[in-house]
């Protein structure tokens, strides 16, 4: 496959570099061993005790979500800390945070596929699952922010209601509805398409009748026909090609929610690229947060190797630096614009009541990530786990700062106010983390967390080689499976 | 149906079968093998064209919706600006284009593949269960003009397979 591995074409320096680069998959794997290792996690009758423990914690958080939503529907959004200058608070912070996390999944599954990055193969499936679950969590916030989600249908979607009322297509909020719902749909299609050949594998390997039936239904009768594979590969590539501009558009549209308004700190042309980079940055942090325990507890170190960990840190470093550039750019233009409101916005961010959050996010997203330059840090898995959690915190703080500091002190000092979340805000946030984790636990128990058929394509066995016609000696007899 | 141990043997067998004049064949493998398209002389799929059409449909549909709602169904005069403020309809148009293309790619691929299909004769062969793990199969169908029960069997055996079997309908 990779012709650059021809020994004579490489200088000594390149060779030394290559020997330092860990493999995408550990040597010695075959079709059977790949299938067995990944399939076993799902088909095994025994569920690890750690799974129950993790699911239990996630379930408690999920129940907090239920309680919060129940209370919200009874009392209305007054239970939250939102007030008049800060009408958008935790809802939009958490919405942007979750949507951003989802972006890494699509980046890995689509953009890296187009760039023929082989290392994407072992992390794309669970990263896509992460995308879906993150979008589900994200969508909950704007929906519940309406207070009456059952009415939100005619506020959000263009359908011919008897009232003759239609949504406003000039509003970024409607763009957001289209962007996020398209994103959710396309991610789901992409994910399911990838799953079908693996469902066929599980159908054929499952021992229990129920598992055979369920996986059989999900496999849609997949039989690995060459004609099918041909269309399948084209469709997969096309979906990847379609998802690539889509993923860039989604966070751009999310940033329009802010950039199209006239508020100081929001009305900036840097927003779309800065948001997209931030999304990928936080998303990779979440992939890392999930991958590290996953490979550890399910012994998947052969498939999710140090190569993946290294590459993910490098992506985080690059996108993190773009985000840091965004911060610098915001500060520079606040000063350079000469606009007193812009200047005050920046001054307020840096020295106002929320300054501690601003400086924490700078400390994490601009200073701390410089640690990723060091190989010793990239090799230290427990430390990386902590750093990736901190990146998630940092990116959450970034959204908090962007949203709250711009709103709470705008043009007129008479309308200034402070914002503080209530316990229901936290309940909602913790609850969606519970929903996300619960779905993820179910996913790794019942579906293959790594794309089995794609892993097969990267084992040496998948390479074609000239056929040597030696008559088979001890193979099974010809009439053995006489139909 | 002949069973092979690896992808190379399958591609080799498929090529030979085609050279021997067999046309109605199919190959089954646990991984996509690009070389099989040539070996089996598969036609290029119409899918990309369909996806393009789906995208165009989504594009016009999305813009048309935004235009119709903003100009006819629910016109809203904002500071006497034009009702057809088309630059602001672009994000929605873009998203519906993507949606149209993606839905066509998804539905079109399964429809052209005639899936979901709950029953297929190949599953009657017990060894076929390994087609989704590590075995490769070549099937010559009885509808092939050159198909002849005994000769085809012998021909398949001559391709050095792991085994040959007959597929019950």
What does this structure look like?
The complex is a heterodimer of chains A (483) and B (169). Chain A is mainly alpha-helical. Chain A has a single domain, classed as Formate dehydrogenase/DMSO reductase domain (Formate dehydrogenase/DMSO reductase fold), CATH 1.20.1630.10. In chain A, helix 3 packs antiparallel against helix 16. The two termini of chain A are 38 Å apart. The N terminus and C terminus of chain A are likely disordered. Chain B is α+β, with helices and mostly antiparallel strands. Chain B has two domains: 88 residues, no CATH class; 66 residues, no CATH class. Chain B is built from five helices and four strands. In chain B, strands 2-3-1-4 form a four-stranded antiparallel beta sheet. In chain B, helix 3 packs antiparallel against helix 4. The radius of gyration of chain B is 25 Å and the shape is rod-shaped. The mean pLDDT of chain B is 90. Chains A and B meet through helix 2, helix 7, helix 9 and helix 17 of A and helix 1, strand 2, helix 2, helix 3 and helix 4 of B.
Descriptive labels:
heterodimer, A: 483 residues, mainly alpha, Formate dehydrogenase/DMSO reductase fold, 17 helices, disordered C terminus, B: 169 residues, alpha+beta, four-stranded antiparallel sheet, 5 helices, 4 strands, 46% helix, rod-shaped
What is the percent of helical residues of chain B?
40-55%
- Count of runs of 4 or more consecutive helical residues of chain B: 5
List low-confidence stretches of chain A: 1-8, 470-483
CATH superfamily of chain A: Formate dehydrogenase/DMSO reductase domain
Number of domains of chain A: 1
Q: Average pLDDT across residues of chain A? A: 88
Euclidean distance between termini CA atoms of chain B: 12 Å
Secondary structure elements and their pairing?
The complex is a heterodimer of chains A (483) and B (169).
Chain A: H1 12-20, H2 31-43, H3 49-75, H4 90-114, H5 124-145, H6 152-156, H7 172-205, H8 209-218, H9 226-259, H10 271-297, H11 306-336, H12 340-351, H13 355-367, H14 375-379, H15 381-408, H16 423-446, H17 452-457
Chain B: E1 2-4, H1 7-19, E2 25-28, H2 34-39, H3 47-73, H4 90-112, E3 136-140, H5 149-157, E4 163-164
Antiparallel strand pairs in B: 1-3, 1-4, 2-3
Helix pairs in contact in B: 3-4
